[in-house]
Write a structure and sequence with these properties.
With 629 residues, the protein is α+β, with helices and mostly antiparallel strands. The strands form 5 sheets. It has a 6-stranded mixed sheet with strand order 2-1-3-4-6-5. Strands 17, 18, 19, 20, 21 and 22 form a 6-stranded antiparallel sheet that branches. The relative contact order is 0.07.
């Protein structure tokens, strides 16, 4: 157990805030070490994604006795293999790193690599992820060889080692309590940077901000404040940036080429960076910056870091840096918005600053439903970090909100666990649309948040953690049946209010347990019908979703919405089995329909105007209730 009194106090607070008192001391210690260490890689992620921390800490074969296992791709913690596909679709290439935290006495480096990287553990997520990124399909997209980071926790620190092989690079670290304390302190943004500069312009104090400086400094000075003692980039300095490092893009390749081939001219081509901080002081040609946040220039900073990490000389590189002492939160937000306007930013990066999300946050704040813990929409990173009265599970992130909405109201529970950047693209103009009711978003968040609370308290639900989105779908389905179209404001509000009334008080937990029992039963029926090889191919399988719907409703057909459309039948013909099928002219895609779904259909439909509804079956949209007008 921890001896440092401050670290000990932080650990105690963490256990209380997350209601972990019933766990063993060793279990909580392991969890807190994982939380500290991996929060420096992707700050705030583990505060908002409880399942990922459970996965890192708990989803490990017991006999291995490790502290934690995690995989990152392009600096992001990976929770499922589909995250790899989603990020590759966006970034093009992938940098993979495997992290293994272990107590020093228990394992050798060779044993850890053999057990975690090479061996395939059936039913364990970390093994599925490592196995997937080593497939031929993904290897062709590697940006470079993977890195295996082995972090031994021991009483004493030791010098880091790096070993390169033909397959991967191995980095071995040995950290102690003192090092954990330093990481935890940095994670809390309790960091003071001393930035040496060559020349400066001081603007003095502004009305809505403190001091402002524009300085010219050597790139080495900047990289020094960007990295910690281990040479890792301080990722939490980019918490307020609208986007993360984008990796090997054309712009970043060009930037890195300039840094290596024409370093003197870098300052001429680069826009520089903007830093916002809590307190700012100039002394002896150095800026003393309290809790710096880089709000613009993430790509520049990371490119400098990558070039330096590869052993290149940055002594001739100069950078222009604007440092602003922000005395009000709204000033910092305005700077973030203003300094990123000129950049090409992923559209989803600005999603949560749209007015609809602000109004959604306000709606959550005024809502309180009897029998449920209150829920807060944390649309901005660490928005409620200073409010100790709000428990972690009460804070619903954009990631959880969009995943819950896809599961409950978009009829796609099989894709609901996908990365939020993928989902916001797939459901643009369908979710978070002006004029839509706030109620379904509130219900999705409320049920997801309170489900998290119930699952933490009830150990019998541990096996259901990977299927939380399926449980949310089943809770709704078993209580009130399919939801109306989300764009039908009057009907969806009536449905949501009725659902909340049905699930109030102790009824919600009973419904959760009933949904879990039903899901286990459907899983057994699925495995019996398909074979034991299909036991693990469930969460993202559209065929399993159809099977589940058939068991629940007697049909796998899902009505996409309640709207009635009209169009003209383009063609009607027969398939190889003699069944009629055709296509209706419709935008954005023509609609397929057949006589199996429409028993009254005949050849005379061709060329006729018809009315129809849209449904989904086996992941494909088709028409039902097709009627000649």
């Amino acid at each position: 157990m921890f001896e440092n009194p401050i670290l000990k106090a932080w650990f105690s607070d963490y256990v209380k805030e997350n209601e972990l008192e019933e766990n063993s001391s060793l279990e909580n210690e392991r969890r807190y070490i994982d939380y500290i260490y991996f929060s420096q890689i992707q700050p705030d992620r583990l505060d908002r994604d409880f399942d990922l921390l459970n996965q890192i800490c708990d989803e490990i074969p017991e006999r291995m006795g490790l502290i934690g296992i995690a995989v990152t791709m392009n600096g992001q913690l990976i929770s499922t293999r589909t995250d790899i596909d989603d990020i590759l679709q966006k970034d093009g290439q992938g940098r993979f790193e495997v992290y293994i935290l272990a107590y020093k006495e228990k394992f050798s480096t060779e044993e850890l690599i053999s057990e975690v990287y090479h061996k395939r553990w059936e039913g364990y997520n970390f093994s599925e992820i490592t196995g997937y990124f080593q497939t031929q399909k993904i290897v062709t997209r590697w940006e470079g060889l993977p890195t295996i980071n082995i972090i031994f926790v021991a009483e004493k620190k030791a010098e880091a080692q790096s070993i390169k092989s033909k397959e991967y690079t191995i980095n071995i670290q040995q950290i102690n309590e003192e090092k954990l304390y330093a990481i935890a302190q940095a994670n809390r943004k309790e960091y003071q940077a001393d930035l040496e500069y060559q020349d400066s312009i001081e603007f003095g104090k502004l009305e809505d901000a403190g001091q402002v400086y524009v300085v010219l400094c050597n790139a080495d000075s900047l990289v020094r404040i960007l990295t910690n003692d281990d040479g890792l980039i301080r990722a939490n300095m980019f918490d307020d940036n609208v986007r993360d490092y984008q990796g090997d893009t054309d712009v970043n390749q060009e930037m890195e080429a300039t840094l290596t081939t024409n370093p003197v001219n870098f300052v001429l081509y680069n826009n520089g960076i903007t830093i916002v901080c809590d307190r700012l002081e100039s002394k002896n040609r150095a800026l003393i910056i309290k809790n710096p946040q880089i709000v613009n220039g993430c790509q520049t900073c990371n490119s400098l870091y990558q070039v330096k990490r590869k052993g290149n000389d940055l002594s001739q590189v100069q950078v222009i840096i604007k440092v602003i002492e922000a005395t009000k939160p709204e000033v910092a937000q305005g700077i973030v918005k203003g300094t990123n306007r000129q950049n090409i930013v992923y559209e989803e990066a600005f999603e949560t600053i749209r007015q609809y999300h602000k109004e959604l946050e306000d709606f959550f704040n005024v809502m309180q439903t009897e029998g449920f813990s209150k829920v807060y929409y944390e649309r901005r990173s660490k928005q409620y970090a200073r409010d100790n009265a709000i428990k972690p599970y009460q804070k619903v992130s954009f990631r959880v909100l969009i995943q819950s909405m896809v599961a409950m109201y978009m009829n796609h529970v099989e894709t609901s666990h996908r990365h939020e950047s993928k989902l916001i693209i797939d459901y643009r103009n369908k979710l978070f649309v002006e004029g839509q009711s706030y109620y379904p978003y509130y219900v999705a968040a409320l049920l997801a948040s309170n489900l998290e609370c119930i699952m933490k308290q009830d150990y019998s639900l541990k096996d259901m953690r990977p299927y939380k989105m399926h449980l949310l779908f089943l809770i709704q389905e078993l209580s009130l049946g399919p939801a109306p179209d989300i764009d039908d404001k009057e009907r969806i509000e009536e449905y949501c209010k009725k659902l909340l009334k049905l699930l109030g008080g102790t009824e919600y937990k009973q419904t959760v347990l009933r949904a879990a029992a039903r899901f286990r039963q459907i899983m057994r029926q699925w495995v019996a019908a398909k074979g034991s090889d299909y036991r693990y191919a469930i969460k993202d399988n559209p065929e399993f979703k159809d099977f589940m719907l058939k068991e629940l409703r007697g049909s796998s057909v899902v009505e996409v919405n309640s709207n009635v459309y009209t169009g003209r039948v383009m063609t009607v013909t027969t398939d190889k089995h003699g069944n009629l099928f055709g296509f209706i002219a419709h935008r954005p895609e023509n609609v397929y329909f057949n006589e199996l779904d429409n028993p009254n259909m005949n050849i005379s439909y061709e060329g006729k105007a018809v009315s129809f509804r849209l449904t989904e079956k086996a992941g494909k949209i088709r028409g039902i209730n097709v009627r000649i007008l």
